[in-house]
Amino acid sequence: MPSKLLVKPSKKTGKVISVTPKSAKWKYVGHDVWKLAPGKTARGAEERRETCIVFISGKGEVKVAGKSFGMIGERMNVFEGKPWSVYVPPGAKWSVTAATDCVINICTAPARKATDAFVIDPATLSIETRGAGSNTRYVCNILPEQDPRAESLLVVEVITPNGSTSSYPSHKHDKNNLPKESLLEETYYHRLNPPQGFAFQRVYTDDRKLDEAMAVEDGDITMVPKGYHPCATIHGYDLYYLNVMAGPVRIWKFNNQKDHEWLLKK
User: What are the residues whose beta carbons fall under 8 Å from the beta carbon of 176, sequence distance 6 or more?
Assistant: First the structure.
């Protein structure tokens, strides 16, 4: 039986994936994927939601509320550098017209503040190494909780080298119990290098009422409504993912699964 948490592209071009609060049966996170040929345009607007447009690959002209932000984007592959992104406040219309083959992710969450749109230049972003050995991954925060310009969104991308684990030891953030834990819905947009590879992700709760293991391929989205959610990629294939998180409070506070917490003491 197909997993209810795994979303695959529905077509080859245009809006190829759309995850909404309604389709996901949750409250906060929206996550769309657009694949554009040169000259093609993606458009959108969210009345009571903020948006982060992340350039996965390629270049395009971005307009927000009628203002052009010029040509955005640089890398042609997610494994070649840091991302360009654009923040769009609630109520503003946006468009991206591709100059090259282009993949963008549209990340949304509830918001009400009337703020200005802004570009997130990769030169302002740093890459953090987490873990060690076969649990090493490289993290680039696009909209971290320390950035006060967003109201709900948390956006981050991660690269996990071949044969390694990520989002591990298993952790969760599904209870509104601060300061111990925050409630955050989460999506993962996955890419593989080379693209014919695959990885695995498991989403499960302590009582195992939710327990799904998924084989993830290039371009898939996985949804994490609750529970633990570790990933593992196989030998020879690097794994990239873009995380989108949102909840009632814009704080990332997680708890590790006790069974695996001993790994942090090694």
Answer: 182, 183, 247, 248, 249
pTM for the complete prediction? 0.97
Written as one letter, the residue type at 137 is: R
CB-based burial label for 266 (10 Å; 0-12, 13-18, 19+) = exposed
Structure tokens at 123: 């030169």
To 10 degrees, the CA torsion angle through 46, 114, 85, 195? -30
Alpha helices in the chain (DSSP H): 21-24
d(CA 198, CA 232): 9
Question: Buried b vs exposed e over 72-96: b needs ≥16 C-beta within 10 Å?
Answer: bbbbeebeeebbbbbbbbbebebbb
The letter for the amino acid at 172 is K
Contact between 118 and 80 under an 8 Å Cβ cutoff? The reply is no
Secondary-structure breakdown of the chain: helix, strand, coil percentages, each rounded to the nearest 5: 10, 50, 40
DSSP label of 47: T
Interatomic CA distance for residues 174 and 190, integer angstroms: 22
| Contact indicator for 148, 118 with CB cutoff of 8 Å | no
CB 94 within 8 A of CB 49: no
- 11 Cβ contact list (under 8 Å, min separation 6): none
Element (H, E) at 86: strand 85-88
Distance separating alpha carbons of residues 38 and 60, to the nearest angstrom:
8
Note the pLDDT tens digit of each residue in 183-224. Answer: 999 999 999 999 999 999 999 999 999 999 999 999 999 999
